């Protein structure tokens, strides 16, 4: 069973300018992700899928593979479903691992735990393992509460156990990825991540906060509460 990790990197960024390759403390988000994936030691190949020449150069310097993304699949015209399916089509493997750089704190231990669970449960029909976060929020849609009765509101800890995909780390059978056009398979298993492992960089504020946490926890080796 071949497992290949794919790091999707789009040139530029609509919300955080050049977030994938710009300085992030003493590294970049891309270099950090490559280093952690290599340390995990569970992949047959690590591939940077990108339209960015700078990202390709980082991949070469780090000794990992890269795939030059076609312009359409790096454009805003390409839907998420088209993009996911394309990643599966151009990546020859049995199991596809989706590893965005915007989740910089997913640990080696969590990666190995996901791999072990996938191997253990795949014979039972499970085709995907993905990290999720617990959502304990009072949610509304179209003027109505989604997950509670506003006339009998519970304490927040008693809200329903809703899971949100955080896209930190996903293993999925390549066949399922291509057929479903999504990184979540037909029969997924979820691993809940908490704390900094769940951080996803989507805005300039997210980037700033994550960089400060990285400097304190990773570079300085300090406890987050120090």
Structure described in brief:
This protein has 226 residues and is of the alpha/beta class.
Number of helices: 6
Question: CATH topology, what is it called?
Answer: Spore Coat Polysaccharide Biosynthesis Protein SpsA, Chain A
Helix content bin: 25-40%
> Unreliable stretches, pLDDT < 50, 5 or more residues?
none
* Rg, Cα atoms, Å: 18 Å
Largest sheet: 7 strands, mixed
Counted beta strands: 11
CATH superfamily: Spore Coat Polysaccharide Biosynthesis Protein SpsA, Chain A
First and last CA, distance: 43 Å
Number of domains: 1
Q: Please state the overall shape, judged from the principal axes of the Cα atoms.
A: globular
CATH-derived architecture: Alpha-Beta Complex
How large is the share of residues in beta strands? 15-25%
Characterise the protein shown here.
With 226 residues, the chain is of the alpha/beta class. It has one domain: Spore Coat Polysaccharide Biosynthesis Protein SpsA, Chain A (Alpha-Beta Complex), CATH 3.90.550. It is 31% helix and 24% strand. The protein has 6 helices and 11 strands. The protein has helices spanning 29-40, 53-62, 80-90, 108-121, 174-180, 204-219, and strands at 3-9, 23-24, 27-28, 45-50, 65-68, 95-98, 128-135, 140-141, 144-145, 162-173, 188-192. Strands 5-4-1-6-10-7-11 form a 7-stranded mixed beta sheet. The chain has a two-stranded antiparallel sheet with strand order 2-3. Strands 8-9 form a two-stranded antiparallel sheet. Helix 1 runs parallel beside helix 2 (53-62) and helix 3 (80-90) packs antiparallel against helix 5 (174-180). The relative contact order is 0.17.
């Amino acid at each position: 069973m071949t497992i290949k990790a794919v790091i999707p990197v789009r040139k530029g960024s609509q919300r955080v300018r050049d977030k994938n390759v710009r300085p992030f403390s003493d590294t970049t988000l891309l270099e950090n992700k490559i280093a952690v994936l290599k340390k995990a030691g569970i992949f047959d190949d690590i591939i940077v899928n990108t339209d960015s020449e700078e990202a390709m150069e980082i991949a070469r310097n780090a000794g990992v593979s890269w795939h030059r993304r076609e312009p359409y699949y790096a454009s805003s015209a390409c839907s998420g479903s088209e993009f996911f399916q394309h990643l599966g089509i151009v990546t020859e493997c049995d199991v596809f691992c989706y590893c965005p750089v915007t989740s910089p704190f997913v640990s080696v231990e969590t990666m190995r735990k996901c791999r072990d669970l996938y191997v253990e449960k795949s014979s039972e029909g499970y085709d995907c393992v993905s990290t999720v976060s617990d959502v304990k929020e009072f949610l509304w849609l179209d003027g109505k509460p989604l997950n509670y009765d506003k006339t009998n509101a519970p304490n927040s800890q008693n809200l329903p156990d809703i899971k949100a995909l955080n896209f930190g780390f996903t293993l999925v059978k390549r066949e399922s990825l291509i057929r479903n056009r999504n990184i979540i398979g037909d029969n997924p298993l979820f691993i809940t991540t908490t704390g900094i492992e769940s951080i996803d960089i989507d805005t300039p504020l997210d980037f700033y906060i994550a960089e400060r946490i990285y400097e304190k926890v990773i570079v300085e080796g300090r406890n987050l509460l120090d």
